What we know:
This protein is mostly beta strands. It is 14% helix and 44% strand. The strands form 2 sheets. Strands 1, 3, 4, 6, 11, 12, 13 and 15 form an 8-stranded antiparallel beta sheet that branches. Strands 2-5-14-7-8-9-10 form a 7-stranded antiparallel beta sheet, with no helix packed on it.
Amino acid sequence: MRRLLYVLAACSLIGCASGSASSPRSALAAESGFEPLFDGHTLAGWRVVGGGATYAVEDGAIVGTVGPGPNTFLRTEREFGDFELRLEVRLEVPGNSGVQFRSHQRDDGRVYGYQCEIDPSERAWSGGIYDEGRRGWLASLADEPVARGAFRLDGWNAYVIRAEGARLRTWVNGVPCADLVDGADARGFVALQVHSGTQGRIRWRRIRLREIRTDAS
C-alpha cells in the first residue's frame, strides 16, 4: 500500500512539473480541444478598430484603456461560427465593456453584432447579451437576480460564451446568465470592447476557443 501511494505521489509531482514547464499556449491548447486566441505576449491575430482606446500586453493579459472617440474594439482577424469561448476578465478601473462574438464591421468601420456584457454599474447586467450597433438589448438580466450577482468587481471573472446554431448562452463564474435563440448572425469575429467614456481599464487573459463541429460541417 505504501509503495502504491509513493508511486502515485511521484507521478503527480512529475505531472505537475511537466505542466509548469509547458508554455501557456500549449497548456491552453491541451484543454479539451481549445485553441488560444491570445498568445500571452503579443497582439498577433488581432487589430484595433473604432475609437481611440489603447490595447497593450502586460503580465500575460491584454489591457484596454479608455481613450477619445467612440467605442473601440480589439477584434480577431479570423471569424468563427459555432463555438465555445472561454476567457477571464478583470476591471482594473471600472468602465463599461463587453466581448463581441459573431460580429461584423460596416463599410464605415462601425462594429455590430452580439456582445456579452461587462457591466460594473449598479444595474449589474454582466453576462447579458446586447446587439451592438443594431437592435440593442436581446437578453438583459433584469429578471435574473442570481445572474446579476455573479460578477465580481474586485477580481478575475471567468466568462463562457457558447454559440451553437441559433442558440446563444453565457455564464459568468459558472453562473448561467443568458440563454437566447436568435438567428441574425451565423458567424463573425470575436472582439474585446472598451466603451467610450471618461474611465475604464480592463484586463483580459486566458482567451481560448473550441469550435463546435456538426456532422454537416
